[in-house]
Amino acid sequence: MNIRIIAVGKIKEAYLTLAIQEYTKRLNGYCRLEIIAVKDEKIPEHSSDAQRRKAVEIEGSRILSYLKDDEILATLEIQGDQWDSPAFAKKIETYGIAGKSQITFVIGGSLGLAPAVTKRSQWKISFSKMTFPHQLFRVMLLEQIYRAFKIIRGETYHK
Q1: Could you give the number of structural domains in the chain?
Q2: SS3 of 134, please?
Q3: By residue range, what is the domain housing residue 52?
């Protein structure tokens, strides 16, 4: 299976980079993983609603430029459905069984995702009603994808 993560913004913290590298290494035996960081749009600290909407639209255009017609698009958004780890794993497995070999997960920037991106999504996922830093969320998503493949293969996951 091919897994892509498209995320807005660069990772700035070394400890997060190390965690991403660790999960990337762990996932190597389960899938082909690609992580794409798209540029985040800078906005003034006291920006207007219109400036924030425009920034989200620009980030959305950058995300859309990477999407393919034949992939499953999974957006991470607070309004999405919440899954436990076994159900998340089953969903990934079901896509694989159905011949869908490309799943792309999209993590928006600090202002969220553009409506044009969420409109294309076939799978809207929420990890919680809480808001998480989008840089940390990459690690959380990678961990859950890794856990899902361990569940699919019936392997023990060491915490």
Answers
A1: 1
A2: helix
A3: 2-152
